[in-house]
Design a protein that fits this description.
Elements: H1 20-36, E1 41-57, E2 60-78, E3 81-87, H2 92-108, H3 140-157, E4 161-180, E5 185-186, E6 189-201, E7 208-209, E8 212-216, H4 225-238, E9 248-254, H5 256-269, H6 272-276, E10 295-299, E11 322-326, E12 329-330, H7 337-342, E13 357-361, H8 370-377, E14 380-387, E15 397-408, E16 411-424, H9 425-430, E17 432-435, E18 440-442, E19 445-447, E20 450-458
Parallel strand pairs: 9-14, 13-19
Antiparallel strand pairs: 1-2, 1-4, 2-3, 4-5, 4-6, 6-7, 6-8, 9-20, 10-11, 10-13, 11-12, 14-15, 15-16, 16-20, 17-20, 18-19
């Protein structure tokens, strides 16, 4: 059972100032006032977040930050006209003023025939407890000790670790309650905690940096400070004596932490906003093969403690576990109510984004760790860092700065830097030859390292 369910409904949860019951009253007052002044429909959400962030550098405390914020957001519909307004003032007058502001915006906004709340049939009424709230009762002194321990572990790995960009510990939590006039009522508390470090190896022009982190909803499930520090240091050390390579074409293996970015590119290209505006390189791809036959992509909103878990989306629409891509063929897009209506389709419960996506290959075997993936790469580039934002989602053109390792006959030969990798996302996705069993979770996406059959490398 989730920890937050053991707290009485009318009492604030651990670390919060406001109880859920107060947020329910706040939201109900906003909806009632919206109806009173003439709104056709309305929705409101009250939320609160708080947390602690501590950073250290070279054994010294650098910053201690505490954050606390609250908000009431209101959406008002006047027919097919929509207006939004928000406030951080929870007084009765501020609520009424905010509702009036949203109503006035709606009155003077152009009509949009597809604007409106979700259909009644799509509303979530049963809300699973997904165990998302695990408050971390850590103070600034304790957080600083963990951050210092993490950085010290990096320095202790080798005398070649000469400097540090610092280490940090963060503990964050929030909760909300949302409702609208089509019958949705729901909300929950969630937490996200993290620890990170960025050591620097070498001296002078030979310096190399890298970083690593751990992040979980439950702090007890995070990696130890020593493990994070040591691994970050090993990554930085492995990049010493990097060199440039000649311009060429070759297969490219994306480290699992970067492979999540390729999955993210697919999500962006098949999301409603890009599709109805026709600004995606995967326009009208439903039912078509855009990935190899061995690739599947699954979405599961109901993973316990998952970073992309939720019983409903940002509009109160029921979420569903589903197959997004089957044998390389697109089975469904990522749609909100609005984008679905623009496309003449039905919402997929993705207002606010995707939920716990996993990309898998039917060719992957349990032993396909990084060493096995390097052997599959054979001779080519193993990328561990990407720089810049050179991705054009309209055309699919892809060009980014990169660092990593040159691999020969399945073995790492030497580290490389100051290169650019280029291709087109459409052909890159179709050219995925293998997905590793070395899975990595990045937010709402989980995937192993990805081997792309051919890309251009611009070097010296």
């Amino acid at each position: 059972m989730s920890k937050h369910t053991s707290t009485p409904k009318d009492a604030p949860l651990s670390g919060f100032q406001y109880a859920r019951s107060f947020f329910e009253e706040l939201v109900d007052a906003a909806l009632q006032h919206a109806k009173k002044i003439g709104a056709t429909d309305a929705g409101a959400e009250a939320s609160e977040g708080c947390g602690l962030s501590v950073s250290v550098r070279k054994g010294e405390l650098e910053t201690v930050e505490r954050n606390r914020d609250k908000s009431l957001g209101v959406t008002v519909y006047k027919g097919n006209r929509r207006g939004n307004a928000s406030t951080s003032d929870f007084s009765k007058k501020a609520i009424q003023d905010t509702v009036k502001a949203a109503y006035d915006i709606a009155r003077f906004t152009a009509e949009d025939p597809v604007a409106g709340l979700p259909d009644l049939a799509d509303i979530a009424h049963e809300h699973r407890d997904l165990d998302l709230f695990h408050p971390w009762s850590i103070n600034s002194e304790q957080a600083a000790v963990l951050a210092l321990e993490c950085e010290a572990a990096a320095f202790a790995t080798s005398k070649k670790i000469t400097n540090s960009e610092g280490a940090g510990v963060s503990a964050q939590q929030s909760h909300f309650f949302s409702a609208h006039t089509h019958g949705f009522r729901g909300g929950y508390a969630s937490s996200r905690h993290s620890m990170s470090v960025a050591p620097i190896a070498g001296k002078g022009r030979e310096m190399q940096r890298d970083a690593w982190y751990t992040s979980m909803r439950n702090a007890q499930e995070m990696a130890s400070p020593a493990a994070v520090g040591r691994y970050a240091a090993e990554r930085a050390l492995s990049r010493l004596k990097s060199r440039k390579i000649a311009t060429t074409q070759c297969p490219v293996l994306f480290e699992s932490s970067l492979a999540a970015g390729l999955l993210g590119s697919y999500v962006q290209a098949t999301s409603g906003g890009a599709l109805y505006r026709k600004t995606s390189f995967l326009n009208e791809s439903l039912g078509k093969r855009v990935l190899p036959k061995h690739i599947d992509i699954l979405e599961d909103p109901f993973v316990l403690r998952g970073k992309g878990s939720s019983p409903f989306d940002d509009e109160g629409v029921q979420c569903h576990a589903r197959t997004v891509v089957k044998a390389g063929v697109v089975q469904g897009y990522f749609l909100s109510t609005y984008s679905a209506r623009k496309l003449g389709m039905k919402t997929t419960g993705n207002a606010g984004g995707s939920h716990n996506l996993t990309m898998t290959s039917r060719l992957t075997r349990p032993g396909d760790n990084l060493d096995a993936m390097l052997k599959k790469l054979g001779t080519g580039l193993f990328v561990v860092e990407l720089m810049g934002q050179g991705v054009n989602y309209v055309t699919g053109d892809y060009s980014r700065g990169a660092s990593g390792f040159w691999v020969e006959n399945g073995e790492i030969a030497f580290p490389v830097q100051e290169i650019t990798i280029a291709g087109n996302l459409k052909t890159m996705l179709q050219g995925i030859e293998a997905v590793g069993a070395d899975t990595y979770n990045y937010g709402a996406k989980t995937v192993g390292s990805i081997l792309v059959n051919r890309m251009k490398l611009a070097g010296s």
